[in-house]
Structure formats: structure tokens, C-alpha cells
């Protein structure tokens, strides 16, 4: 089956956090610009905006449009825009808001798998594409959607939808799912989950990573090393950062941990999160500093 759109290029697509400021937790456009500019400096392939870690569910339509406008002004990187709705009509509305704000800068909209039944998922994706004309990236992330989707359903959707340009596999065991998908469909598959399974995902056939991390330079270096030199080089590039990757992905507080790590790096001014996200646990401050210092040392050695 020929594809309607070019597949998403391989590499690291940085998932952009939405920075807030002050007691009102308004969007901090200065910090947002800094994050986006930093991703471009370090060689990210593109940006994923308004994803789960972008706290899109806590944003109004006007705030989502503002985020996209700031991102477009601050970078020339291509965009994947997250769509939070699981129902078809609200998802279409979200796509249209994104298209009005970012237009041709959008390479794809990321739609969550909303049903274990292939016919339901395929009809959902086809309806969104028919109404908006958008290329779609399919995200399988049951921790966010609450929907457990068999890998066979993802494969069926990728086979049936010629407007699919990528798949984001975030249903553990991710490497097993990626291996099954890449063996049967010609659609690039990206890992997520903060890079916790990145090496195994690359071995399984992943095109790269679409995720956030407070030291995304490590993810870029890992994927680049994998493509140019293979597993040993990729492992060496990522290994010094694995304690911090593991630290950031602690269930329930992962968003607050990453935002505080980004604040410690100077990439954002305030690490506040909106409800229902949990705040940063102060008891983890010492561990965070240790892991950040190790990561900073590793990055300094790489640059040197």
C-alpha cells in the first residue's frame, strides 16, 4: 500500500514540557522558548508538543494555541502535536485548533489508540484524517489513555491507514511490541517512556525516541551512535545517564521530577505542575542532585 505522506524521519523527537510560572501557574513563554531553542541546538530531529508530559489536558484551547505559536516562533524544527481526546469529534476539534495555530509546521498529529478493537480504532483514525487532512502518528500509551491495545490491533491500523506516518510504542514490554510491528509494517516506530528502554528498542528496530528527558543530549548521542557505529557505541553514550533516566521515570511524580531537573539545568524558571500532577517530593532532592551532577559530568567529558 502506497503512503499518502512521507514517514517521520528517524532520530530523537523531543517531548516539550509546558513551563508555568507563579502561583497562578500561567504559561511561561520565556521558558518555553528556551526549551525549544535548546532542542534545536542539540540536534533533535523534531519536537512533540502538547503531549502527556506537556500537560495538555490541563490547558485551555487558547493556551494550547499559545504554546504552538511560541514553539513556531522559537524553532524551525518540524512538529508532532499531541491530541488528548479519545473520542472522535473532540479529537477533530483539537486537530483543527492545532492546525489554525501551527499550520504547515505540523508534520503529524499524535492520536492515542482508543480501542482494542481494530475496526473501532481504524474508523476513529480515518474519521480524523478525513475531517482534517492531517497525517497521523498513532500512540499506544495505556498508562495515559487507560486503554490496553493488543499489538495486533496496532499492526492492523498501520496496515489499513495509508496516512499513518509513525507509531509511538509505550505499552511495556515496548521492545517486543516494536519488534512485532517493524517486522510487518513499513511505518517508523519510536520508543518513549523517558528513554528507559531505548537501547532495547533500537535493537528491536525502533527509528529513534520520541520522549522527554532533562539531558536530551544523551538521547541524541545514543541514537546517532547507534546509526553510525552500532550497539556498543550507543550503549556507551547512554550508560552514564541511566541513573537519571530511571530517577525521572518514577511513577506518580515523573512529571514533577523532570520539571525540577530542567529548572536545575536552567532551562525553565519554575518547575510548577498543574493538578492533577503531583508536586516534587522534597525527600528526593538529594538523590536528584547526585544524579544531575553525574549527568553534568558525563556531558562535560563528552564536550571536552
Could you explain how this protein is built, in words?
The chain is built from 13 helices and ten strands. It is of the alpha/beta class. The chain has one domain: TIM Barrel. Strands 1-4-5-6-7-8-9-10 form an eight-stranded parallel barrel, surrounded by five helices. A two-stranded antiparallel ribbon has the order 2-3. α4 packs parallel to α6. The longest helix has 19 residues. 49% of the residues are buried.
Map the helices and strands:
Elements: E1 11-15, E2 20-21, E3 26-27, H1 29-41, E4 46-49, H2 61-74, E5 79-83, H3 88-102, E6 106-112, H4 118-132, E7 136-140, H5 142-145, H6 151-160, E8 164-169, H7 174-182, E9 189-191, H8 198-203, E10 208-211, H9 216-229, H10 231-238, H11 242-248, H12 254-265, H13 285-303
Helix pairs in contact: 1-2, 2-3, 3-4, 4-6, 9-10
Features:
TIM Barrel; 304 residues; globular; eight-stranded parallel beta barrel
| Average residue pLDDT | 96
* Envelope shape: globular
The CATH homology group name: Aldolase class I
Helix percent band: 40-55%
Distance between the termini: 48 Å
What's the Cα radius of gyration? 18 Å
| Most strands sheet | 8 strands, parallel, barrel
- N-to-C order of helices and strands: EEEHEHEHEHEHHEHEHEHHHHH
Protein structure class: alpha/beta
Tally of contiguous helical segments? 13
CATH architecture: Alpha-Beta Barrel
Major sheet: order of its strands? 1-4-5-6-7-8-9-10
Amino acid at each position: 500500500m502506497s503512503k499518502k505522506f512521507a514517514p517521520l524521519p528517524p532520530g530523537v523527537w523531543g517531548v516539550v514540557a509546558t513551563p508555568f510560572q507563579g502561583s497562578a501557574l500561567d504559561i511561561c513563554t520565556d521558558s518555553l522558548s528556551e526549551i525549544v531553542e535548546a532542542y534545536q541546538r542539540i540536534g533533535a530531529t523534531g519536537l512533540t508538543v502538547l503531549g502527556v508530559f506537556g500537560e495538555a489536558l490541563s490547558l485551555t484551547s487558547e493556551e494550547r494555541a499559545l504554546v504552538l505559536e511560541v514553539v513556531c516562533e522559537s524553532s524551525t524544527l518540524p512538529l508532532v502535536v499531541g491530541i488528548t481526546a479519545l473520542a472522535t469529534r473532540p479529537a477533530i476539534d483539537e486537530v483543527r485548533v492545532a492546525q489554525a495555530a501551527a499550520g504547515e509546521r505540523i508534520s503529524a498529529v499524535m492520536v492515542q489508540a482508543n480501542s482494542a478493537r481494530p475496526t473501532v480504532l481504524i474508523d476513529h483514525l480515518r474519521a480524523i484524517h478525513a475531517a482534517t487532512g492531517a497525517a497521523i502518528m498513532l500512540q499506544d500509551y495505556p498508562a495515559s489513555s487507560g486503554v490496553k491495545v493488543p499489538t495486533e490491533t496496532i499492526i492492523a491500523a498501520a496496515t489499513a491507514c495509508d496516512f499513518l506516518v509513525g507509531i509511538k510504542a509505550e505499552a511495556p514490554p515496548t521492545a517486543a511490541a516494536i519488534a512485532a510491528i517493524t517486522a510487518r509494517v513499513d511505518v517508523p516506530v519510536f520508543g518513549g517512556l523517558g528513554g528507559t528502554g531505548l537501547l532495547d528498542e533500537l535493537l528491536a528496530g525502533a527509528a529513534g525516541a520520541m520522549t522527554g528527558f532533562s539531558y536530551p543530549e544523551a538521547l541524541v548521542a545514543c541514537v546517532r551512535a547507534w546509526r553510525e557505529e552500532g550497539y556498543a557505541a550507543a550503549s556507551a553514550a547512554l550508560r552514564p545517564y541511566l541513573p537519571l533516566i530511571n530517577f525521572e521515570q518514577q511513577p506518580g511524580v515523573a512529571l514533577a521530577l523532570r520539571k525540577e531537573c530542567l529548572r536545575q539545568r536552567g532551562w525553565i524558571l519554575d518547575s510548577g505542575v498543574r493538578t492533577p500532577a503531583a508536586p516534587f517530593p522534597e525527600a528526593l532532592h538529594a538523590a536528584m542532585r547526585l544524579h544531575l551532577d553525574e549527568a553534568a559530568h558525563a556531558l562535560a567529558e563528552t564536550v571536552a
